[in-house]
Amino acid sequence: MKIQLQEPLSKECIQQLRAIKDTMELLSGKWKIQIIGTLLRGGTMRFMELKRTLNGIAPKKLSNDLQELELNKLITRTVKDTKPITVEYSLTKHGKTLDNLIVEIIDWGLNHRKEIIQK
Amino acid sequence: MKIQLQEPLSKECIQQLRAIKDTMELLSGKWKIQIIGTLLRGGTMRFMELKRTLNGIAPKKLSNDLQELELNKLITRTVKDTKPITVEYSLTKHGKTLDNLIVEIIDWGLNHRKEIIQK
DNA sequence: TTTAATAGTTTCCTAAAGGAAATTAGTATC
DNA sequence: GATACTAATTTCCTTTAGGAAACTATTAAA
Known about the structure:
Two copies of one chain form a homodimer.
Chain A: H1 11-27, H2 32-42, E1 45-46, H3 47-53, H4 59-71, E2 75-80, E3 86-91, H5 93-96, H6 99-117
Antiparallel strand pairs in A: 1-3, 2-3
The structure holds a DNA duplex.
């Protein structure tokens, strides 16, 4: 019988696991990446514009997700003093840094579908 | 009053949204990326080895997630005919293509933590 | 004055994710 | 014969995610 001693994980490794957790908690769920991707394409958009483009999202969900993304400094929310009030959402500089990651996610997903289906 | 006509999303855009969905469904959850990341570092590993390294995972969860990853051709499961049975898990070639993506996720997460905390 | 658009919030419900603890079954050591 | 290690599976439970529908409040057009 072999007793396997466990080396404790290195600090670097623990940091990396935490980084994965941070990123995935932010991006997990059905809508968040779609919201960010839509804003990447569309620039500044209003609530109803987002709601229409993200076909099928419930207003509660959109509202909640936007709040969470704002808390994390990925988007800004600006209330315009127009006649019927309008609210504009756009990505922050920090939010735009998700561009590369989203491209990777898309590329991997496209390739994965090929891999799974045709073999 | 302006009526905003909606152009239907382009085929390319629909494909991209589907690719995001595919990738995120596969990687979402508390443990899957950690399992893949661990196998990327550790090469071939046994069930109990994984369980010890992924500090805190319930055996049921590990078992379920491994099955799901195997179904998606990201890992292989090999039963060894040893005295107490051993089972080895390792990444497929396809599974290893997640390397880049995971690096991006880690890098973004590290940077995000700086961005949020110190400002 | 009814209708519609603005941007949400509230309530209620279902489904999925995930954890804890016990169990299984084969083999091997004490 | 009791204990322990292998790799799970089973049962039960709580938490979280997310959807549907109704509602609020303001403004403006028909």
